[in-house]
Amino acid sequence: MSEIIRLEHIWKRFTGVTALSDVSVSFSSGEVHALVGENGAGKSTLIKVLLGAYQPTEGRIFYEGKETVIESPRKGSELGIEGVHQELMLVPYLSVSQNIFLNREIRKGKIFDVKEMNRRSQELLHDFSIDIDVTKPVKQYSASIWKMIDIARVINQNPKVIIFDEPTAILSEREVDSLFSSIRRLKEKGIAIIYISHRLNEIGEIADKVTVLRDGHHIGTLPASELCNDDIVKMMVGRDVSQYYSRSRVERGEELIRLDSLELKKGQHDISLSVHKGEIVGLAGLVGAGRTEVAEAILGINPILKGSITYKGKPFHPASPSQSIKKGIYLVPENRKYQGLILRFTVANNIALSVFSRWAKFFYKGKKEATVAENAIRKLSIKTPSSKQLVNNLSGGNQQKVVIAKALETSAEFLIFDEPSVGVDVGAKEEIHNHMDSFVVAGGGILMISSDLPEVVGMCDRVYVMYEGRIVKELKGDEVTDNNIAEYMLGSKVAEAGI
Amino acid sequence: MNKEKAYSLFFEKGLYRIMILVVMCVLLTCISDSFLSLSNIMNIFRQASILLILAVGATGTILAKGIDLSLAGVMSLSGCVCGYVLNAGYPVPVAILAALSVGIGFGFVNGFLVGVVKIPAFVSTYGVKYIANGLALMLMGSNIFFGFPESFLFLGVGFLGPVPVLVIWALIITAIMYVFLERSKFGHQIYCVGANSTAAFYSGISTLRTYFMVHVISSTCAAIAGILQASRMNAAQAGMGESFQMLAVASIVIGGTSMAGGEGNVIGGILGALILTLITNGMNLLNISSQAQPLVTGAVIVLAVFLDVQMKHIEGKKAVKAAIA
Ligand SMILES: Nc1ncnc2c1ncn2[C@@H]1O[C@H](COP(=O)(O)OP(=O)(O)OP(=O)(O)O)[C@@H](O)[C@H]1O
Ligand SMILES: [Mg+2]
Questions:
Q1: CA of A43 to the centre of ligand 2 (A)
Q2: Tens digits of residue pLDDT in A201-246
Q3: End-to-end Cα, chain B, rounded Å
């Protein structure tokens, strides 16, 4: 296995933050090299240096043996280095195939060969068992499909190095499997893979080598076979972290919300579920099963065609998020960059986004916003130089914490979390789960959508499983196991039981 | 004050626009004797007033990532309705109310098209402009109404002490808009919707109400501008607001309010309006022919926006350097 990129003594400083200090590491062709570390450890910064999006403050990069300055992403791309970014990078209004072939359009003479591009896009996505209409704008697809489209786009460019920054954070098991088999194929073709993930189990499964970063420092690089999860966590955090889920015992309270045979759009019907006070209820299912649509219907974002909702014993007709929020219903959306945050605004602005309007009849309370934000930053240990930092400058996991902080500020009674721990590190995940736990202890109810099965099993009292737009099973108590959920989610039990 | 703060004030807060203004004044003082005369200064302020009212009124639409291309049409129609009602012999307050209702009504139409029907503001307000213009033409034909009552003319040409009443109107409206956009929660909502309407919507900000709000404000200010223009000219005719459309938008943009939404402020718009007025005033003083004036104005608008982009660029580069240092 030959070395393809070597970093020597790389430093990267931003105002007030040193994101990388003296990092030296090398990556080889035909190898999957995992990069792990806490939120804000410098992983994304490191790969942005490799992709040419950031210039290192100091240090040298050698590419195929020659010292190289990767002055721009374009240069990186020319060298054959491509990345699937942590954030969703597609153009919402362009079609799936236009996104996949953006700047790389296939031409027939002078004009674009749209048919061919559509065909190829379909093929690429089919490799991941995703069959969608590639001529539709990506805007209408869910976050995980965006991710798969982005991955297809990168693979289509035949690079020599592919960097995945937390590709699986919003994918469900099935997509993860197809991603992994495709990574193995790429590896066999001699492509160097750099892989960032907070899901340590994946690292053991796919990685050959592991590099650990902590606070911008290179802690070590070791063969994956010599490491177990606990070692990695210890290297990352510098202390032991419990990787177990802990829930307080809570008496199940009265019913908070009940959906009765909702019908949403075509093919999504028979959606009935309930959440009681003091409960965390899971909504499991594959990507495309319609989980997010249910959440958005409760908020009044998507229309409800048939059926009824009862909230706190009274009929409830969702009209818009602003009205649902007034009633104490809040959604933590799955796509933080598009739906959750105003990236150009400060951390304080964002934390207060859902509540500043309540503070006064007319005036905007900037001071109050700052105090509230500072408390939230402390409470969730958000890593930022100040509450005035732009959210755009935070690391991905810390952005996710801002989204959670924003939700907790609303003093809602019913929270829906759509992929709550996307991209947060083990320590932070534990913190977010503790906040969810105290929320239900205090009498709230939670509906949690998550593609992370251990999270669902560990956190939920009950789980509803969705399959192709319907809720096909409610699992209670001991029935809530990985296996059970997976079987209903994939539809195997569904056919058997003839549901 | 430390260096960093001064730097941020100068570039980020756009203080350099004041410098441009000062430099222009100094230049004009040197070139023309009559520039610094009291009568000319008052003249500049009076000329700037109507533009200012239009600009601060429409700032919200641009902050919300839209635009109001109907304001000149609404201004004309309101001015004409006002003149028409006055000529029909009704008292002044009735005429003003009629004109204001036209403005508010058109604001709702714009808000409806942008917020409910979801037609991009660029297209919908452009269409509405023609509707307003058309109605004004149907009302007036090619007539000019004039000879309005004294009490009405006072609004546009009167003085309170040494200060023109027109300037007072402009100051009041600017102050209201400043407080509304930059100190109130509604203003902050407008910024949020402009910067990321999806996130604002999911966070419980009513985007629909925001679109109605910015358009009603913009059209109402356009109606006020129409009333004052009719009073100032002692005349109303179908095309009376036309020349203000692009000047108003240009004032806002020169003032640093970004067409990308969610970024900008009222003070910048004031400076933009003053800069544009000074250019016209200067050209008059220098006896530049009125045929050549649009060319100069156009060139200056392009230059100003270019400068702004450059300043932002330098700012960005300095930030990068600071980060590296
Ligand atoms: N453009 C920027 N301006 C200022 N600070 C930045 C910028 N980009 C990153 N940082 C800071 O650098 C540090 C490292 O961030 P980075 O995004 O590399 O973390 P990460 O390891 O990818 O974390 P995560 O797991 O949360 O994605 C963070 O403290 C972050 O706030
Ligand atoms: Mg990251």
A1: 6
A2: 888 889 999 999 988 999 999 998 888 888 888 888 776 666 677 8
A3: 21
